[in-house]
Amino acid sequence: MILRHGFPVTDPQRLAHLCGPVDEHLRAIERALGVAIARRQEAFRIEGRRDAAQSALRLLQVLYEQAGAPIAPEALQLALGQSRPPAAAPAAGADARVELHTRRADLEPRTPNQARYLRQMLSHDLSFGIGPAGTGKTFLAVACAVDALERSSVQRIVLTRPAVEAGERLGFLPGDMAQKVDPYLRPLYDALYDLLGLDRVTRAFERGQLEVAPLAFMRGRTLNHAFVILDEAQNTTSEQMKMFLTRIGFGSRCVVTGDVSQIDLPKGRPSGLVEARAVLAGVEGVAFTDFDAGDVVRHPLIARIVAAYDAARRDGAAGS
């Protein structure tokens, strides 16, 4: 399909920001959507599959409206993620906008899988988000937890993760228990500070509305009226995962996140997340969202790194 379109250009500088230095933004759009874009002054000619060409045209229009200043690479990458034509028709109600109550007014899903993940967290008592780094699994889970607390749907937020080192041996850490576990839980703190602000996070800890603890501290507890998040779940053992999932109490929501391609357990120890994915498939009230490289919303190089490792793993499995 060939589309020809001319924008009502009133600001040549805005058009230059849209195209990028030496048209590098146009080349990025071509690579991402599989189209060819030619420009003659303010007129664009787009060649490619119908859905891809139409997506590219819509993206150019959106970016032109946002091009009052130079377009940052990360902004272009996020816009590309939103513009890719879906692989399949969305489920009923999938186009409904998900609104969360946090201090981040711009918080919204940036890929179809992120939107599905948010809807499942809001509608299921137990949700799993499984996929590579940079797909927003932890951040969106914390955002849903903050939203539930702001709406008084829950009385507190409990964040936990296993204290497993990523292929290193850090030895004995100094300080009290909180200082010892802080390095493992830092990503959760970062998300809280971004979504609530330092002052509100501090007050919430003082009031008992927020709790951050290593997974080992969950044994023997029943968590009622809480939004509970287990992060880095690929590093749980089968026993730890079963123990955690049976902590869920009345009026609680639970979200489990992890990346099964980055398991740091000792060799030969099966991952509790991998086992839970198989055991709980089809169980009523449990939802799974699988992310891939197309959902990465960090630096675009991360998506390419994830895709390269996935391809190498598939080739290794095929050759074994």
Keywords:
320 residues; alpha/beta; six-stranded parallel sheet; 9 strands
Brief account:
The protein is of the alpha/beta class. Helices cover 43% and strands 15% of the residues.
Describe the structure.
Helix 1 crosses helix 3 and helix 3 (50-65) runs antiparallel to helix 4. Helix content is 43%, strand content 15%. The chain has 11 helices and 9 strands. Residues 86-95 and 165-171 have low confidence and may be disordered. The protein is an alpha/beta fold.
**What structural class results from the helix and strand content?**
alpha/beta
Report the sheet with the most strands, covering strand number, pairing sense and barrel closure: 6 strands, parallel
User: Strands of the biggest beta sheet: in what spatial order?
Assistant: 6-5-7-8-4-9
| Total beta-strand segments | 9
Q: What amount of the residues lies in strands?
A: 5-15%
Q: What is the CA–CA distance across the termini?
A: 42 Å
Radius of gyration, Cα only, in angstroms?
Answer: 22 Å
**Count of helix runs:** 11
Helix fraction bin: 40-55%
Unreliable spans: 86-95, 165-171
The sequence of SSEs as H and E is: EHHEEHHHEHEHHEEHEHEH
Overall body shape: globular
Per-chain topology:
Elements (H helix, E strand, L loop, with lengths): L1 E5 L5 H8 L4 H10 L2 E5 L2 E5 L2 H16 L7 H11 L28 H12 L2 E5 L6 H14 L5 E6 L15 H20 L1 H10 L2 E5 L11 E5 L7 H8 L7 E6 L13 H8 L6 E5 L9 H20 L1
Helix pairs in contact: 1-3, 3-4, 5-6, 6-7, 7-8, 9-10
